[in-house]
Amino acid sequence: MYNQLRSWQTEYRQEFDKRMAVREDVEVSELGYRLTDSFYAKQYRIALRNSGIIDPLKIEDYIALDGYKALADLLENQIPQADVVAEISESLLRGRGGAGFPTGRKWAEALKHDAEHKFIICNADEGDPGAYMDRNILETDPHCVLEGMAIAGYAVGADFGYIYVRAEYPVAVKRLKIAIAQAEERGLLGKNIMGSDFSFHIELRLGAGAFVCGEGTAMMESIEGRRGLPRVKKYRTAHKGLFGYPTIINNVETLANVHMIMLKGAKWFRSIGTEKSPGTKVFALVGKVANAGLVEVPMGTPLREVVYDIGGGCKDGKELKAVQTGGPSGGCIPTSLIDTTLDFESLAAIGSIMGSGGMVIMDNDDCMVDIARFFMEFTVDESCGKCTPCRIGNKRILEMLERIIAGMGEPRDLRYLKLICETVRDTSLCGLGQSAPNPVLSTMKYFANEYEAHVKEKICPAHVCKGLAQYIILDSCIGCGKCKRNCPVSCITGEIKEKHVIDHDACIKCGACEAACPVHAIEKR
Amino acid sequence: MKSPETVTLTINDQEVTVPSGTTILDAAKKLNIKIPTLCHLDLHNMKFVNQTSSCRVCMVEEEGWDKMLAACSTRCRNGMRIRTDTIKVIRTRRLMVELLLSNHPTDCLICSKNGNCDLQALAAEIGVTRIDYPGYRSHHEMDTSSFSLVRNMDKCVLCKRCETMCNDVQTVGALTDIGRGFDTVVGTLFGMPMHETTCTFCGQCVAVCPTAALTEVDNISQVWEALDSDKIVVVQTAPAVRVALGEVFGMEPGTNVTGKMVTALRRMGFDKVYDTNFAADVTVMEEAAELVDRINGEGRLPILTSCCPSWVKFIEHQFGDMLDIPSSAKSPHEIFGSLAKTYLADKIGAKPEDIVVVSVMPCVAKKYESKRPELGQGDYSDVDIVITTRELGRMLKDLGLDFANLPEEEFDELMGVASGAGDIFGSTGGVIEAALRTAYEWLTGKPLEKIDFHELRGLSGIKEATVEINGVKHKIACANGLGNAREVLRRIRSGEANYTAIEIMACPGGCIAGGGQPYHHGDDSIIRKRMEAIYESDRHKKIRQSHKNPQVIKLYEEFLGAPHSEKTKKLLHTKYVWRQKM
Ligand SMILES: Cc1cc2nc3c(=O)[nH]c(=O)nc-3n(C[C@H](O)[C@H](O)[C@H](O)COP(=O)(O)O)c2cc1C
């Protein structure tokens, strides 16, 4: 069987190389091939190495680029399980699903416990709005995730794997199904893989799109057939997880790194990235950025490089105001901290998180209070409703933000807002609630003046918040009096041929004056 | 790796050593440090532990960490340094309660749980006097579809005690939370009205609900109206009521207040004050006769007792294929109702329509039971109105009676005397023990030497005993709590167990812990005390076997003829309906 795989590899590689030779957008690289466009030039792609290069529907392509070789090497040489775990531990691979937990430590714990069954769960629930790296990996290179899971299974002695994937990813689901069938057909998955006595089956479980189901314990509840609510952890998942058996939950991107680490070694992996966070991270660069897309860079890359060198700065030459990282529960980083490096520690130190790698670029047209409201709205919707701080606390936070944005904020609100945010963070049952107030806390920290402007001066500096909009009469006013006559609440005063004025306290912001002005001397701000 | 047997930690700088696995809450109790809780409820004698950690009221600090810990579910670790006395802990607790109150109606003064509400007590205890975070309040349709329970989800704090009870302990599975985020609410499958679900109306959800989200259907005004009418209003009280009613008036749990209760009922204006315990004796006559018939080859064994309407509904839904095993005897208060409208009506020369039968029960399922169409004759129901012990307590308070100092009176003649066997119906194990006391003598023709069946008493979920009758060993079982009932039924169906007779009570502990009893607020020693009071009453009775009760003998001689005869089958027996599982 192992020779068979080798001969497939040689055969398919020749054919693959021929196809690549005629493509102008790829070149040979250390890990196979790479894309040459300038957007990719400054990237270093491990998890996305095959993305856009191989045909995801062809297992032949994956095998051509050393696919399933890492798994075959383990089986053929009967590498002890502990050695595999040690290799992953030494690589210092950390979870890419958000928390950055050392993958090796999880695996070691699961290996330690004897049990009749063990499970590997691939977390492909990707619920962060704007994040789509997991989806991309599954759609463009499904086999690398399957192989990562099988290696994890071998390492800890698991015989079964679930991929918990969002039902909103029909293409990923379809390609995964095809990939599993192909791998099983060739004996690369399933019973007695490549003739060895290691068996590993993989099944898909479709999530119905609740964000909280991405949380590990909620996910297990869901797979076990119950409502996906986070549960109180009495044991570590790696000790007693799914159906009470030792279970490993790893993110798609985490697993996508495993095959390369096994092939090229922990040392190689550690040579990329930072000392504490080796390897790379995929970011979904979106928002007001010139070149949006998935960006994979070594950990520790300065934020500036991603935003400017790869992203090309803000769209339309506007000025960068902030970068939001970490998805709905992340934080906003002000331009002044643009030299922050992208790794777990540095981001946490400034009140944001790596999260699953969402990265939203904001320019001066964005109101930070409104941004905080937007993310809060998401978490309030996605809360499972189980614990008080997340169910009611987050709702109250959202309501306060809404009041502030509508111009009904009171000075005391800012103090109360901060207090409730901190309490929700410190008391919620699961990560969703614990991180939900992050966008508010980080914007309050770095954009305090914007909050004050909303609350005290009742203005929105970015002119986003409608409730705080003001109509201003410019110097170009000719004093015709049309605005005055059209104002339904009679809040405009002024003599004929002189500049008119609006009483902002009485103004109801209907815009009638702006529409009536014959010389466009009234502006909304 | 074996975990060490004990762990040592400090709480507020005081060191404490506890068995490993102990929660911070329990460790703090050892040091007399009180950590207020809300969702947490530990009735481990009933196998009910609600540890959802959802209210976050019990959050404490671990020194050096921002993230706080839920004391109710976090297990102690060696070297932990816990603080429950910091400003952060106090502020957090207050905020959690404030948040709950911000989404809770403020009609406490006219709420049926006023004075009995855990949320209200907690807010008072920690001194909440204002709500800093007011906001939108969720609103849900009230569910008044059933005869037993009212669900007012506006008052739900999502502690999930009801779900734990319904799903884990009772295995009924009628409740589940639905919706998401702020709109999450405890509901039913597909949002069906309670009346259409598999709910058995055991009322244990009501018994553990900290607020007025789940309450009994209030039938008090119907009773006042009946008392105000020209009809003859007859009241009966179940065996478990008298050992719990005193609690409503601040008396020690387990005080038997039979005499005062009778006086109070007379003063309320009931025309006749009777005892359901008498009817329990009649039930024994019927069930024991049926058991004798079945042992002698007529029908199937085992025989299951059928006094508990909640249990009957459970088997109808969950084991519809096994409806031939429960005894066909009606439950005691229904038997009473039936006799009141025939036997008593004859005696006093009244028509059944002129008599109103009121049952005072420890139970909310009896409310539903009394509305079952087959439980009556022709146009009338055996029982007209059912109120719970709690409702009776409220009525007596309303009347301004100084209950604790009332004189003691006796039940009325004809249906007011009970044997000790009738008394013990109120406790788990009591019904089957009562039946055995009679069936044994009928089958053997010999007097029963040892009246007490101690193996069948106590709070364990499933109890077993073996009785030798005419040289044959008969296995007897007794289950309390529907989860245990399910297990016993499973054993019967699989043929694993070979029982002759089984008693089943839906409520863990039996009727003394029924869903209509005064709230125990998580103190299960109260239930034990009620149980002791019941057996105490039996011990002091001269007549302790139903078939020796002179009023029962008279009833059969003058009116019914023989037990399990054509006449009793018409008046005192019923039939069951196979119901849907979902
Ligand atoms: C509310 C919430 C949502 C989450 N969603 C995801 C998700 O969509 N994908 C994911 O991989 N991890 C998600 N996580 C993190 C998982 O709980 C878990 O840490 C992760 O899957 C572990 O894998 P890793 O160690 O490989 O990162 C979420 C956590 C929380 C609290």
Strand order of the largest sheet of chain A: 8-7-11-9-10
Q: Could you give the distance between the termini of chain A? A: 71 Å
The overall pLDDT of chain A, averaged over residues, is 94
The chain pair with the largest interface is: A-B, 34 and 38 residues
Radius of gyration of chain A from CA coordinates: 27 Å
CATH topology of the largest domain in chain B: Rossmann fold
Q: Order of strands side by side in the largest beta sheet of chain B? A: 2-1-7-5-6
Overall CATH class of the largest domain in chain A = Alpha Beta
Q: First CA to last CA of chain B: what distance?
A: 45 Å
Helix content of chain A: 40-55%
Number of strands of chain B: 21
Q: What is the approximate shape of chain A?
A: elongated
Tell me the number of structural domains of chain A: 4
Measured as a percent range, the helix fraction of chain B is 25-40%
> Which regions of chain A are unreliable across 5 or more consecutive residues at pLDDT < 50?
none
Features:
heterodimer, A: 525 residues, alpha/beta, Rossmann fold, Ubiquitin-like (UB roll), de novo design (two linked rop proteins), 4 domains, five-stranded mixed beta sheet, 14% strand, B: 582 residues, Alpha-Beta Plaits, 3 domains, four-stranded parallel beta sheet, 19 helices, 34% helix, 15% strand, binds flavin mononucleotide
Write the topology of this structure.
The complex is a heterodimer of chains A (525) and B (582).
Chain A (H helix, E strand, L loop, with lengths): L1 H20 L4 E4 L2 E4 L2 H4 L17 H6 L4 H8 L4 H11 L11 H10 L6 E6 L8 H8 L1 H15 L3 E7 L3 H16 L15 E7 L8 H8 L23 E5 H19 L9 E8 L5 E6 L4 H8 L9 E6 L5 E4 L9 H6 L8 E6 L4 H15 L5 H18 L5 H17 L3 H5 L2 H9 L1 H10 L13 E3 L8 H5 L5 E2 L7 E2 L9 H5 L5 E3 L1
Parallel strand pairs in A: 3-4, 3-6, 4-5, 7-11
Antiparallel strand pairs in A: 1-2, 7-8, 9-10, 9-11, 12-15, 13-14
Helix pairs in contact in A: 5-6, 5-8, 5-11, 7-8, 7-9, 8-11, 14-15, 14-18, 15-16, 16-18, 18-19
Chain B lengths: L5 E6 L2 E6 L4 H7 L10 E3 L4 E3 L8 E4 L6 E2 L10 E3 L3 H16 L15 H9 L22 E3 L9 H9 L5 E4 L6 E4 L15 H5 L5 E3 L3 H8 L4 E6 L7 H4 L9 H11 L3 E4 H20 L7 E2 L4 H10 L13 H17 L6 E7 L3 H5 L6 E2 L2 E2 L3 E4 H11 L20 H4 L6 H15 L17 E8 L2 E9 L1 H13 L6 E5 L19 H15 L10 H11 L5 H7 L10
Parallel strand pairs in B: 1-7, 12-13, 12-15, 14-21, 15-18, 20-21
Antiparallel strand pairs in B: 1-2, 3-4, 5-6, 5-7, 8-11, 9-10, 16-17, 19-20
The complex binds flavin mononucleotide.
